[in-house]
Automatic annotation (TrEMBL):
Entry superkingdom: Bacteria
InterPro entries found in the cross-reference section: AB_hydrolase_1, AB_hydrolase_fold, AB_hydrolase_sf
Gene Ontology MF: a single term: hydrolase activity
UniProt name for this protein: Alpha or beta hydrolase fold
SUPFAM superfamilies to which the protein is assigned, alphabetical: alpha/beta-Hydrolases (SSF53474)
Length: 254
């Protein structure tokens, strides 16, 4: 980690190089349960904090997916990685596709975990109010997390994710990222891209589950495939970390 790029840390020292981008409610610590199940000897995984999150909570920025992509490529430069794969969780999946467009020769594959597509995620007026209000109202964050995990978790689990989200993100960045990941559409730029893509979704995610992947990613990426985790909702790195790690490592090995 250096002062020239955003905060990151590397897990493992294996030959497969992978850069991971977190979701809207997380920071790089949200991958901690997943990290416990990754094979240190086969992969080197760099986990990055986006501007406005985690150790980068005070970093100023425009808070767009384009900026996330540029910052992530700067981390790869700092690591000396010419080529690598990208994991993108939810909004991180949209930024991963911009990395592919900005540096097509460097991105070996994309792993999208409940990933937002290149077309964004259109919201009706009521849902937009819920999501936009989540920047300032923790209750909105709780409602979104509860819904996107199928209403299967108790107060302690939900409150833990809410508290981390509020404590490790800037409300300004959180609100600004929403516009970028939900409302911008560049899907025509990725159509027919041959990059290998693994899409991992939770069976209990009503927002970015199998149907959403089939309507977007799987139409545009000819070398994309889908895997559904039966016990997960939107937060597979925390809900089913072992199953997710196994899916990721099998894909990278292939």
């Amino acid at each position: 980690m250096t002062g020239r790029v955003l905060p990151y840390d590397v897990h493992g020292d294996g030959p497969r190089r992978v850069l991971a981008l977190h979701n809207w409610f997380g920071d790089r610590t949200s991958f901690a349960p997943l990290r416990a199940h990754l094979d240190d000897a086969s992969g080197s995984y760099a986990f990055v904090d986006c501007r406005g999150y985690g150790e980068a909570v005070d970093h100023p920025g425009e808070y767009t997916m384009e900026e996330v992509a540029a910052d992530a490529l700067a981390v790869a430069d700092d690591l000396g990685w010419d080529t690598f794969s990208v994991i993108g969780h939810s909004m991180g999946g949209k930024a991963a596709q911009l990395m592919l467009l900005d540096a097509p020769g460097r991105i070996e594959s994309i792993i999208g975990i409940s990933a937002v597509s290149a077309a964004g995620f259109p919201l009706d007026e009521e849902t937009w109010g819920l999501f936009a209000g989540a920047a300032e109202d923790p209750g909105h964050r709780r409602a979104i997390i509860d819904n996107t995990t199928g209403g299967r978790y108790g107060d302690a689990w939900l409150q833990g994710l809410v508290d981390r989200s509020v404590g490790r993100s800037s409300a300004t960045a959180f609100r600004a990222y929403l516009d970028s990941w939900s409302r911008t559409d560049f899907h025509e730029r990725v159509r027919d891209n041959p990059v290998p893509v693994l899409l991992v979704v939770g069976a209990h995610d009503p927002a970015l589950g199998a149907d959403a992947m089939e309507a977007t990613w799987l139409r545009w990426y000819p070398n994309a495939r889908l895997e559904v985790l039966k016990d997960a909702g939107h937060y597979a790195p925390e809900e089913t970390p072992q199953a997710l790690a196994e899916a990721i490592e099998a894909f990278l090995a292939s």
